[in-house]
Amino acid sequence: MQIIGVKLYRLNRLFNSRSNRCFDVAVDHGFFNERGFLQGIENLEQAVKTIVAAAPDAIQLTVGQAHYLQSLPGKAKPALVLRTDVANVYGTQLPRSLFSRMIENPVDQGLRLDATCVVVNLFRIPGEPEVTDQCIQNILRIKPECDRMSMPLMVEPLVFQPNTKAGGYMVDGDLEKILPLVRQAVELGADIIKADPTDDVSLYHRVVEIAGRIPVLVRGGGKAADAEILQRTETLIQQGAAGIVYGRNIIQHANPAGMTRALMAVVHEGATAAQAAELLVTQ
Question: E strands, 111-184, where?
């Protein structure tokens, strides 16, 4: 996909000029009505200030909380990635009826908030095809508006494990399930893909390949030990990932700013996991 004009200009604000990669810190978890998602962001204003001070490329927020980023003075702050859909699919005990609903006039709201990009989910949940249908309808609706208003569209294809097996927010890292969903997101018109890591991260180049020219950012998933998340990130970058979108591995860390800086060294400077771990200790 060749991106030209204003959409490209917005993408230039999202991707780092040195590495041409993106590090997006997701703090939109409160949108999903799960108590456990609020750990580390109970005081979102303070969390945003801490992350901004560490200077990632972008911060992912919702319409109700974007002001904590955009009201900060000065021009040297991360770009806003606006979450446009809310869902009830993450609980350990799922409700009788599941949904994924998009906010009204998402691109207009994104423009008013000076967002650089909007993001929408594409779920594959065992036994819940209606939710996938809702996600596809959301994408079909928002895509023409994104093109008309030159707003980059990030699609987040998520393959879930059965809730009875994993119990809420547990993604399936099966490459054979991730590949077709990523490709579907590309076919639906994504300008950026935000996808889960594969169980075997050494195979992630196949996800990058299936996306073609569309850059792939990797989700952080559940909370992991420092050594694990840094090594995984190093391997994913080596496999061709265009960046990362991490949330809980930063906001629930004892030193969120330090972890942000350590991960930035891996993503933008080519640091090894061991080098980044030393940086984290010294912060």
Answer: 117-124, 153-159
